[in-house]
Fold each of these.
Amino acid sequence: MSSILQQIEDLRNEAINCQKCDLAKTRTNVVFGEGNPETPLVIIGEGPGANEDATGRPFVGRAGQLLDEALRECGITRKHVFICNVVKCRACIIEAGSIKNRPPRVEEVEACFPWLLKQLEIIKPLVILSLGAPSANVIIHKDFKMTKERGLWFETPYANAAIAALHPSYVLRQMSQGYPEARDLLVKDIESARRKVIELKKQISNK
Ligand code: URA
């Protein structure tokens, strides 16, 4: 069996040619994901936006900058985690002559799911942090209610434990009074994921 790194690279090379749904027709790049595939912590967003589509890298726009800041506040860098999305290609529509992001359709999420599943089967994370409800709907349970359920721990078939946090794009959309509070919650949930990794590693080493 090849190394985890090699398995992820082999999967990336397969995924970049994916034609399983219509998003293949409009994408510039497949945004497979990046970071450390030997990590205990995988972070999963919804899907790439314009910057990610242009660069082929996840979370490189404003939301990504906020995510990097929030991770840094918890002592985490991109080298410590693996960051990817539920859908690997940008979902967009043309509205009044300009291209806008749109939420991925159910059939697009379903078509893309085997890539995410294979990523998680290779990485075998201890903890998954879902960013936003669309990711939590896939990883934790359907109809996830971010207001009531963010910051709570759930069982998942894809890791030892899963938690959901506010999506950084949602945090950025909050008006002046709401912003610091939403940002604090994002940092708090990332910190909670970090601590859970430590707790689970201890449990495993004591077995
Ligand atoms: N939002 C996401 O959900 N994923 C990205 O990669 C960028 C923005």
Amino acid sequence: MRDTVTGLISTYDITGRYLDREAIDSLRAYFGSGTDRVKAAAYISANASSLVKATGAALFEQIPELIRPGGNAYTTRRYAACLRDLDYYLRYSSYAMVAGNCDVLTERVLNGLRETYNSLEVPVGPTVIGIQLMKDVLKDALEAQGIANTSFVDVPFDHLTRELSEVSV
Ligand code: CYC
């Protein structure tokens, strides 16, 4: 598992280089947004269940077939599994946000996930829509909390989306 700092150090150490301009810029951006990242993490941990609930409501409003008979989130068990998955995405994204690195997502969330979803017929398209809705719900909430630049929030959610949507070979 990596964060911005350990990620840079290992990259530069492999080639025995001092941190160059690019590395310094990336460290500056990371530390510059540090307070906001911590604020975001605190907000998420205090409001996780309402963020998940709002995301689920938006998802099922946009794709009501999911919770109708025949839909993958139909039956209480699967409905609950879907909200639980959204909760996983939120929690792990909050870790990645604090770390400034998406390694934790690859390692703990994405590993084997597409295969699991395929075998259970969990639809990837609607899952990706759910992840993007969660990003929007969270960004709106954080902006309302006075965090002006929430672009660091996009990174983990977009990473999850990109990795999940990639066609398996
Ligand atoms: C199931 N989601 C699962 C399963 C796993 C995960 C492993 C199968 C085992 C189980 O039911 O618990 C996901 N597990 C994870 C993740 C981690 C993990 C991400 C990392 C920490 O340990 N169905 C929909 C929606 C979507 C959905 C689009 C919600 C956004 O229609 C999710 N996931 C969903 C559902 C199931 C599931 C409904 C149950 C499927 C079934 O058993 O038929």
